[in-house]
């Protein structure tokens, strides 16, 4: 999937959060990195059709996204979203959480939805958890079930906003390993992350977002080896 962002700007009232975002590339796997408050979540929400830019244009596979209700609904149907907090429904079991959007948003019948979910549970060692409620699961299991829910709808693009930030550190690895499997399956993804090892080793490309705009972008191998701007050098010094 190809994405093109042309002069995307976003302000909330008087405060400018994104200014002149320009980017064009095949997505494959992109990590968005940068200091907090830099606009990473805002950009991800615009790409996912959850927020409308104040100005600028976005094209997916060459097709202009108009940000009207119809194109936003289309966009969201093709995108899986994973947030920092797990966002599972507490009163539903793991299985019910995963099949709910399949049945209600995608009109899939229950046996097929259960089969799709069951395959994901099997693949990621979650089968014994399927009838448990979120409160009975570890943070890592909950987040992996959230990812399973986002992937079950067979999205064309997976967007993740700091999916490991709210977890105890011991669960980070299992969540990132799961993401890596979907990347290897060929699912396009954009992840906002502070896990620099994952950004460097598992993501093809990096967008460094700071001071309201993209200060650097490119192949991850190159970005980490030869950061150019003083802002990125300082950011990497601090975080690595
Ligand atoms: P990041 O994800 O890089 O930490 P965000 O995109 O969350 O950054 O936020 C960037 C800036 O935009 C912050 O200063 C934040 O306070 C502001 N902001 C984000 N969402 C809103 C909103 N809905 N209303 C007003 N300000 C917002
Ligand atoms: Mg954020």
From TrEMBL:
Annotated keywords: ATP-binding, Nucleotide-binding, Transport
A single MF term (Gene Ontology): ATP binding
Domain ABC transporter as annotated: residue spans: 3-236
UniProt entry tagged with the keyword Transport: yes
Origin: domain of life: Bacteria
This protein's record includes keyword ATP-binding: yes
Pfam families assigned: ABC_tran
Family (UniProt): Belongs to the ABC transporter superfamily.
Name of the molecule in the record: Amino acid ABC transporter ATP-binding protein
Organism of provenance: Vallitalea guaymasensis
């Amino acid at each position: 999937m190809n994405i093109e962002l042309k002069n995307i700007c976003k302000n909330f009232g008087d405060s400018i959060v994104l200014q002149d975002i320009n980017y064009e590339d095949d997505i494959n796997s992109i990590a968005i990195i940068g200091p907090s408050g830099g606009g990473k979540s805002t950009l991800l929400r615009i790409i996912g059709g959850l927020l409308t830019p104040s100005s600028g244009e976005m094209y997916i596979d060459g097709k202009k996204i108009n940000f009207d209700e119809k194109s936003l609904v289309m966009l969201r149907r093709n995108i899986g979203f994973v947030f920092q907090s797990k966002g599972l429904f507490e009163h539903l079991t793991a299985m019910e959480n995963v099949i709910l959007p399949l049945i209600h948003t995608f009109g899939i019948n229950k046996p097929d939805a259960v089969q799709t979910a069951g395959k994901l549970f099997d693949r990621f060692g979650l089968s014994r958890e399927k009838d448990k409620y979120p409160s009975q699961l570890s943070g890592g299991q909950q987040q992996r079930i959230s990812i399973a829910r986002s992937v079950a709808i067979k999205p064309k693009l997976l967007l993740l906003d700091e999916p490991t930030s709210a977890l105890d550190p011991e669960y980070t690895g299992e969540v990132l390993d799961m993401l890596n499997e979907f990347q290897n399956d060929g699912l396009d993804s954009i992840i906002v992350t502070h896990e620099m090892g994952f950004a460097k080793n598992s993501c093809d490309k990096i967008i460094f977002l700071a001071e309201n705009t993209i200060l650097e972008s490119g192949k991850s191998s190159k970005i980490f080896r030869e950061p150019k701007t003083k802002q990125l050098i300082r950011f990497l010094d601090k975080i690595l």
